[in-house]
Amino acid sequence: MAKGMDLSIRKATKYYGSFKAVDSISLDVRKGEFLTILGPSGSGKTSLLKLIAGFEEVSSGAIYLNDQDITKKKPYERDIGMVFQNYALFPHMTVAENIAYPLTLRKVPKHEIRERVQRVLDMVHMEHLGSRYPKQLSGGQQQRVAIARAIVFNPPLLLLDEPLGALDKNLRERMQLEIKHIQEKIGITTISVTHDQEEALTMSDRICVMNHGRIEQVSSPEELYQLPCNRFVAEFIGEINLLGGEVTKRDRDSSVVRLLDDTSVVFYAHGTKPEQEKVFIALRPENIHLARESGEFENTLLVQVQEKIYLGESIKLKAKTAFDQEMTVRVPVANAAQLAIGQEILLGWSRADMITIPYEADAS
């Protein structure tokens, strides 16, 4: 089956009139890698995918596939596999005929077409459904057919445009793993575009976060979640608490930040700013605990409960600090059952569970 190729984008820019949708982006995608381009609506992620596919021309810059310049090539000359959100299956063709279509266009011998179609049908677990028509299939089955059609001609690169957007939540979660397993099995270089953070974290080897046509950060899912580089990434990937403060002490092993109410918190010194620099400390809700007394954790903060939200396995607490900063905490149901709205509670966390990021007044 397909073997992936390296993709290199060099200072790619795309204008629509005077609007710059893609702003001088450079990005390398490694052979066999699953990379997700993640961002909000209008971030430029779909425009970038269209430049890679050849559906739009770059205004400036270049795109290379295995060191071959494909910048000026038409989409059909790039030989790239593509799966669209609406699957784009031919309703008058059977499943097998849909999958065979790219091979028929390439004038592959009929006996080889049959063999390759059956091979990918087996791979997507639809070996007995080749004679059905798209309208007879579920959404998940239609998506499998679209993937099979996109990989049957052994493309060097597979592009997925919001591939799970049309599915319900449970099916979407199942298909995330199925697509990842297929991609790993055939080793094809894959680029997926989505606005769904959970989808990106589940499926990707690396994630490229975009905003306003630019790349904010490219990292593994773990690094992106645990070490966001700025306020936009921190707030876009999952829930996070950002508390503004100022670095007041820094040594080899740890640093201290004074919060707005003069509470001081200590954290590991890596990546911290010089003394007197304004920063955000960043804390994920699941890393904050209810404390019985101030010495129970390295860092504690007094807050007032504003809201309790039952989530089944846990309770989400919305709280406010003395300096009017909102905080979100996730705690076990048993720990939060007796808490009342308006009650003051002590939150605690360790230095290992927080990082600092550059202070920005507004992430938008």
UniProtKB/TrEMBL annotation:
Q: What is its EC number?
A: 7.6.2.11
One Pfam assignment: TOBE_2
UniProt xrefs under SUPFAM superfamilies:
MOP-like, P-loop containing nucleoside triphosphate hydrolases
GO molecular-function annotation terms?
ABC-type polyamine transporter activity; ATP binding; ATP hydrolysis activity
Q: Which residues form the signal peptide?
A: none
Query: Does this entry carry the keyword Transport?
Result: yes
Top-level class of the enzyme under EC nomenclature: translocase
Alphabetized UniProt keyword annotations: ATP-binding, Cell membrane, Membrane, Nucleotide-binding, Translocase, Transport
| Membership in a protein family | Belongs to the ABC transporter superfamily. Spermidine/putrescine importer (TC 3.A.1.11.1) family.
What does it do? Answer: Part of the ABC transporter complex PotABCD involved in spermidine/putrescine import. Responsible for energy coupling to the transport system.
Q: What is this protein called?
A: Spermidine/putrescine import ATP-binding protein PotA
To which species is this protein native? Aneurinibacillus danicus
